[in-house]
Amino acid sequence: MITQKALPRRTFLRGMGSAAIALPFLDAMSPAMAATTKSPVRMAFFYVPNGMIMDGWNPSYEGKFQELPRALKPLEPFKEDILQLGNLTHNTGRALLDGAGDHGRCSGSYLTGVQVKKSLVDIKASVSFDQLVANEIGKQTRFPSLELGMEDARQAGDCDSGYACAYTNNLAWRSETQPVPPILDPRALFERLFGKGLPMTPEERLRQSKYRRSILDFVTDDTHKLESTLGPTDKRKLDEYLSSIREVERQIDRAEKDNAQIDPHMDKPYGIPADFAEHFRMMSNMMAIAFQADQTRIVTFLMTHEGSSRPYRELGIPDGHHPLTHHRNQPDLMEKVRQINTYHVQQFASFVEKMKSTKEGDGTLLDNCMLVYGAGLSDPNTHLHEDLPTILVGKGGGYFKTGRRVIARRETPMCNLFLTMMDRMGVPTENFGDSTGKLEGLDLA
Length: 445
Known about the structure:
By secondary structure, this protein is α/β, with parallel strands linked by helices. It has a domain at 43-119 and 144-181 and 297-371 and 393-445. The protein is built from twelve helices and 16 strands. Helix 5 (186-194) packs parallel to helix 9 and helix 9 runs parallel beside helix 11 (331-357). The longest helix is centred in the middle third of the chain and has 31 residues, at 232-262.
């Protein structure tokens, strides 16, 4: 209910049908939040496949950032918000057992910290770190966690068996044998965040296409009632927030129209655009909205699945990504991989910019986040699992001392970073995966 007193934090704009739009943090909510003055901390994982050309990733120094290396160059405007972490290792990704192949092992162990099972029939990983946190704090938000992606390995022809696809297609695992598949279609994600949470039938899509009504049209009355109780600053925040939702709608509508013109009988999900950057922008914009409205505090984002052979024709690279990474030290092939590495970071940087520009309390939405970007392999040509390319963006609610490169001892488990993040999320744990303790030297102390 919208009242003239303190606005409840869990206020929704509701309308006809099942439309429900959660609100961002507003000043009018401050009295209701007096007991918990700090904004919640969120975490997200952006996973890119096939490793990195490390000479474009690692600076040649430790400590305060100077100029960022080539792959990280798109993040230069935000380098004071970045921790680059060296020498983190997933020993469980190595070929201790044959398992699901090297690419399956590196993605299967990325958030689980365990060696995936050697089997041609069964799959077995472990409960992933993100889901352990979601089990503890997920009841505080509408969605305990969100799992997002941009490509299906089976549809792309990049895996040939169910067990291998299970590892390369998923980061999040609810149990040892139950992965949590990512949402790939922007329309499906939009419906989950703002509608009844179920995919539309062809008939419903046809009606929507005919009338072209925005989700905002259904909550107009509630919006006007709320605006009459808000001050100028909150009105501006609300307008910016609703405008961002409408822009995502427009992007999805354009993608669906373009897909229908290309092939009205296509099998690919209805709202997925062909352009990588456009697809990422849609998904990450909705991710930002979900964080801003506190619909979830935990997200995993598989930018493309592990072992992806996607070409990047927008860069003038028709070759598949995965084959290119087995470059055998050929300069021309290595250069193409460097371009792809930088292109991925460029997309991520657009999301960081959005988070940085979104005000929350006395700071920004980015200040209250821990965004981990990286891969399950370092050098792709030799499939190395040590010194994994890893950055953490955001201060985690004023906890991390950013703007620098921190090099841990060699063979430091990646799971040590996860222990540190679990503690910051309010879920302290003594052990996870192959951890040996929290990662030292990251906090402000």
